[in-house]
Design goal:
homodimer, 110 residues, alpha+beta, Arc Repressor Mutant, subunit A, three-stranded antiparallel β-sheet, 14% strand, DNA-binding
Amino acid sequence: MKRTTQHIDYSDDAVRIARYAKALSHPVRLTILKLLSNQSCCFTTDLVDVLPLAQSTISQHLKELKDSGLIQGEINPPKIKYCINQEKWEEAKALFEVLFSKDFTKIKIT
Amino acid sequence: MKRTTQHIDYSDDAVRIARYAKALSHPVRLTILKLLSNQSCCFTTDLVDVLPLAQSTISQHLKELKDSGLIQGEINPPKIKYCINQEKWEEAKALFEVLFSKDFTKIKIT
DNA sequence: AAAACTAATCGTATATTTGCGATATACAAA
DNA sequence: TTTGTATATCGCAAATATACGATTAGTTTT
């Protein structure tokens, strides 16, 4: 997109909420997160079996979730076991709690 | 995008969480929501004054927030007063609470 | 060493998002 | 009625997202 206006510096909180929200903004990724929650962890193979999407597509969604921090992959040759990253998950939970609380009026956004 | 695979029917909850998350996935929209929270309501003019973005761009973000249901506009000639839609806001809050709770393993996604 | 399996990445196509300026629309004020 | 103010929408451009199949890379098994 055109970026003719000055860059806006948002607060860390705003950037983090936005990033987590984006990770959560696709039903497939919610499905993956639910599967990981259900089984505590799971292999990509299992996801590919369950979801009606190409392996490459699922891999892309996993990458996005990984980039957001919400999940982590553990190498378990020859497979990779994905789990929810509890620390980040709790952070996201806390951030959304603030967002939906009265304290939202106080948090720094820009 | 190519849609060669079958359409996936996600649950209402999944679709709603994803939609709310998408609305929250941009720092500008978080900023707008914070401003509305702070002042309970506010006119577009005020937003245009505060944010370093073109009026048309802000209007677009307002439209997205409106479409998500999180805000509503009240005509107040010649201006439009935007407010947070408390009902939908509470719904979003509840959905994210479930998402981050143990009950997430139980909610229907697909 | 060869074959099989797992997962990531590449290249490509299309859709959507984000931004802008310009224009349209609707109402209020002069 | 003309002018001004407020907001939405249009048309465009660039970036990002979403999907696929094909290929690559790394392990494991045979």
